[in-house]
Design brief:
This protein has no helices and 7 strands. The protein is mainly beta and 73 residues long. It has a domain of 51 residues. The strands form 2 sheets. A 5-stranded antiparallel β-sheet has the order 6-3-2-5-7, with no helix packed on it. Strands 1-4 form a two-stranded antiparallel sheet. 8% of the residues are buried.
Amino acid sequence: MTTSVHIAVSGNKQVLVTTQAGQTRMQPGSHHSFLVHGEGAITVRELGPFVNEVSEPLVRPYAPEDGDEAQDA
């Protein structure tokens, strides 16, 4: 069975979401549904420094950017 998990980001930091399908960068103000199947897990961590301006697209596959350092959320 597949379950849909909806994540919404508020505040002033980006987050790194890790699922069975890979890693996703989410900006403040964004929201997205992720699918989890079987024993799959979702982890969410703060990413990098405070964000003064978000960058487009708000939800995108993770690729390292300047200042990235995953932090426990």
